[in-house]
Amino acid sequence: MPRSIVLSEPTVRGSAPTMPAMTSSLPPQRAPEPGDRPPAGRLARPPSERYAPPAAATQAGSGARPWSAPRALLPAVLASIATAAALVVDGGVLAEERGLLAISGLGGAAIGLLAASAGVSADGVAAAPLPRGRVTRIAVLLAIATVVVAALGTWAYGRLEGGVMDPVTYLWTTFGPWVPAEAVLAVLAAAWGAGAGPVRWRS
Q: Residue ranges of the domains in the chain?
């Protein structure tokens, strides 16, 4: 039975075989636009994001302190002014000595209790405006300034009434050791209040 012979096209030596061109059937990619929804089965945010610390905690951990110290100390400053005015009225206008120690002690305690707000966090997350030790020192200085201002105010009132003595001579002649006792009591009360507080001023 005769064989059939299939002749193939001759190949040229040294030429590379040609490959058919391949075309992609995938649609072209486009950039996401605002409002596009994520594909099904993919979350908009990674699950680990829920465990990330809030921004306030990150700020507290970085050591940054919010600029709220003057606002936190404002009630203590107002208490200092009110205490000094009460001391001037009691010692100068009313010429009484019995209430000076009571006013100094109560005023110093109020100063410390109100100043302690600057040493604690407002929301429990952010950093406190000032360190606790610094708040105590500020409260003590405010208490001393209160007694000094009250003493000078009492002397100024005496000058208006016709006094001619200098402040030290007038205060020692009129009150004796009462003014130093006021300062000591106010300082002790302010230090106690700064450690026992805070008492926040609610507007």
A: 67-196
